[in-house]
Amino acid sequence: MVPYVGRYSAKMFIKNKPVRFGFKIWCITSSDGYLYKCFPCGDKQEVYSELGSGAQTVIQLISIMENPSNYKVYFDHFFTSYTLMRVLEDKGFHATGTVRENRTAKCQLDTPKSIAKKARGTFDIASDITSSIQIVL
């Protein structure tokens, strides 16, 4: 978040944060921390509008990468969804991300509560037979 308190329509407010007013900037970096591309949050994109803002952000950031099979993309639960993983796989990217329970495309997995009741280290896994996407809980 870049601090800013003046007037501007793209300014964001996040309650209970050290920097409450300012601009969010999305970035894609290398594993060494070198910046490849960044842009301010709020840029509208018409391509892949059905995927949601998080997935659109990822697609916009990876658009500069040539030779996608050379890259591994990692992101958190804000961006991850089954449909985004399918799009990235179709483009040739290797991707890994944590996912929210409501974005698993109705995958038949045990509930987190039932996993918590089992022995430590227990997990559940599901695979898509039409692609190489796997969901682990």
Automatic annotation (TrEMBL):
InterPro entries referenced in this protein's UniProt entry, alphabetically: PGBD, PiggyBac_TE-derived
PiggyBac transposable element-derived protein domain mapped to chain residues: 1-124
Concerning Pfam families, the annotation shows:
DDE_Tnp_1_7 (PF13843)
Molecular functions (GO terms): sequence-specific DNA binding
The superkingdom listed in its UniProt entry is Eukaryota
Could you identify this protein by its name?
Transposase IS4
- Origin species: Popillia japonica
